[in-house]
Amino acid sequence: AAHLTTDESFLWEQLYGMHMTIVEENAQSVQDGNTEAQAAYDEAVDQALDCLKHIVTISPTNKEAWTQRMQMLEAKEDYRSMARGYRTMLRVDPYNMQTIRDAATMFAKRRDDLERPIEWFVAAIEFYNKQAMDLAEQAAGQAHRNALAELANQGMDENVDLGAVSDEEGQIDEEWAAYFAANPDKTVPMDDLGGYSYSDLNMLAELRLLRSEYEMGVVDIKRGARFVQGRGREYQWEDNELVDTEDDEYPVSADGGENGLPIELRIKLGQFRLLLGNEDVAKTHIDALHTLDTAAYEDLYTDVAETYAEVGHVELAIDIYEQLIAHPETNQPSVWE
Q1: What pTM did the predictor assign?
Q2: pLDDT at residue 201, as a whole number
């Protein structure tokens, strides 16, 4: 009956529930080593996955079904099917940041086709940047129209042309409209827009490092952080993102302020600069790490040590490894390797 119903998912959802009941009933016996239970368990999992495949085919926007399917595929370590699933999900909803994050994590873990999650991140970032710009300009335009209307109401210019007033005029908060009118270099911060975050930029930077795309990594961090901070219309920085080898837009002294960077992005920027041969500014970025607890930021210390070793600064790498070894919490076999 389910196969004959090509445009309804409710029968497949019922079948999925039935198969998952079998999975749950056999889970403990599987742990106890019961081979018959294992066979029933495996068959039910495969059938449940088939049901979910039909559900998302009928309803591609069913996020719950996609989530369940991805979790089950990951448990089976079926990364090929996961990759196909993420590609399908992002064709339907290409700017869903959570899906992009999940996909990037899987692709990075497998070190497979890293160019694809980079493309997804870049497309989403460009989309949200444009939204931030458009909304700021729309808000400033609304403030301008409001000011003209006030002048007209006061009889100061009876012939003023207010232009076409769209139905969306009242949807922008008046305080935001006034803010963008008074601050022509600002854009809607990503937190308010519901776009990407510093964490997303950090994930993208990790992917750029894996693909040795150091110049693009610098641009991603500097441009992305500018929009996260709501400074997207500060056009004076755009042409200098790469050539400004001093990274004057993001001085270390500004960390915690408007132009500050989270330490993760500060260190990534330092790594990119080091790998590009800009050693002085790289050291400035990396030195910010040495004020922080070694155990709490073990991953960053390890990343910097590996980058120092990669560019031939073996003594600097050894200094960091010795710092890690000196702490019981970070004195792990992986450091000695």
Answers
A1: 0.82
A2: 98
